[in-house]
Amino acid sequence: MDDTNELSDQTLPFWVTVSEDGDDDAMGMFGRSSEPALRAVPLGPLRKNLAETVDALQQLFADAEARGGTLPLAEAQLSFQVTASGGVQLIGTGQMQGTRGLTLVFKRPS
Length: 110
What we know:
With 110 residues, this protein is α+β, with helices and mostly antiparallel strands. It is built from 2 helices and 5 strands, in the order αββαβββ. The relative contact order is 0.20.
């Protein structure tokens, strides 16, 4: 059995928000207008969505590095949230106030 099939049946517990109408996939973790609840997030979709997000970010970082200049990109830190269905939502700086998320740190090897 390959890793993808194994992950499709596995879950990982995450605290996510649940809105008043019961939607636990709208805002990811700890939105402002809802209550946190522990949910079993499926690893298959989470792995796929996180891989797609990282691939896109790596391309953006490669484009930034190719520009060169006096301030080369040496490190990038990004915050993201995980939805109950395994979605990945990057958190912009305007959204970060009062929002908790996970942080990805991409560092250039020494």
